[in-house]
Amino acid sequence: MSAIIVLTPVIIANWPAITAAVAGAASAMGLLVKESISQAVEEKQSNVERNVEVELSDSKVLMESMATDQEIVLTKGDIELRVKRDERGRCSVCAKGTGHSEAEMKQIAEEFTGKLTQCFVYDKVMRELKRKEFQVVNEEVMEDESIRIHVRRWVD
Amino acid sequence: MAQHEVEITISKTGEVKFHIKGAKGKSCMAYSKWLTGIIGKVKDRQLTSEYYEPDIKTRINLEQNLKTEE
User: How much is the pTM?
Assistant: First the structure.
């Protein structure tokens, strides 16, 4: 053993990279990509609607190739998640739905932001490992939903 | 040739744990710097005894020097 390092991710990316991670997280959680806000038709709900917003604290969405009103809308049943760039340039997830408590909505939003971060980090790590010519020995998804990757390379 | 291995665990919240094996001293430090650069902030770091061992090249040179002195 040489060293064990635990890192907290910082997400700095352009919108296409965020979109790719959102698609991965949505797929893992069984969410459907509805449409972008520019095409969305607002639906009036008669029941009590709750709205919870969770921000990815260490994130920065780069402005290049992104319009200010751009966001991704995901749905699962009566829950709607909106992923967008907020005024401060951070990535935020807003959960909206009827028939759920605020705590439930917050849990869903947090679960999604976690999965989004995991997908983003996975893509970035795999790209960098490939660039450094590491070979993947093993890769598996554990029971606690973590991803374990074992890589190796020979050096002079 | 030395074999360097890395075990990576990405938690469901995105936190990443790297376990670097086989790299010693400066090369281990280089991995640490590289990984921090691509991921983010260091939350915790544990250096093991192998970290403090000299690299293979350094060890060979030291052995050669000792033989020369004899």
Answer: 0.76
